[in-house]
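Re: the request from the purification team.
They wanted to know what the chain is likely to look like in 3D before they choose a buffer screen. I agreed to run a prediction and write the result into the notebook, where they can find it.
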Amino acid sequence: MKKVLAGTLVIIMLTLFSLPAYGASGTPIKVDGVTIVSDVQPEVVNQRVMVPLRIFSENLGASVSWSNSEVTIAMDQLKITLKPNSHAAVRNGSAVTLDVKPYVKNERVFVPLRFIAETFGCQVQYRDGLVSVATEPLVIDGSSVYTLQHEIHMTMGGIVTQMKGNAYIKAIYDLFEKGKGEPTEAPAHYTWTYPIMDTGWYGKATQFDFLDMSGTSVQRFDLYTLYNDSSNVLLYDASADKWYKFGSDDRNDISKTFGLAGQNGFTTVISDTVV
């Protein structure tokens, strides 16, 4: 997986009478310990939990594409192709038969949670009416990342936010690696104290700290922008004490990914001292 991609779905309308019989709906789902926020609730069909496809495209880091009324869900080197209202599917090039047909309801495509999650290496547990999905964590130099801590400083005070969700964490890490350009010298003037900035100064816009379960930093990246020129971005790899040129588009993609994680409930503000 190289980035988090929300697929644009081609809506295939089905009649109500073509759908299988439903059991209880509204089954809560947690991904990496976070309850999924969704405008469409999961459903139970023939004792199988069916979830909106968007859960995979946004919260598990899978890409979604459509061709000839078939949907392909891909992540890393794994791929599933299926078709609404059909038991037939293809998993990594091999034909398989689904217990429950995917279907479209209220302009959302519903797919079998366990089949797709386990294909992508996730662990699925059912307990007391709750479905929990655990994904593989990002591993950096042999250490598993538990949370991503994001810090910004304002003129007076700052905000510290922690993000969970392994797919989001990995997506942001991959964007840092993708955007990392040529090595460069440290700028002559840089600071995290905006009031003293002037022409030629670089200001530290954000700090991202990848933490293990004990809260120890595994990797830290700082992004600096040139005063009065936000397109001029430098990356400071604090763990290696090295500076790099950095793409402004990748900086923007990191911000969007972090924002999407927040919209879906994966971020928590742990400190806000802005006055």
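For the purification team: The longest strand covers residues 202-211.
Please add any questions underneath this entry.
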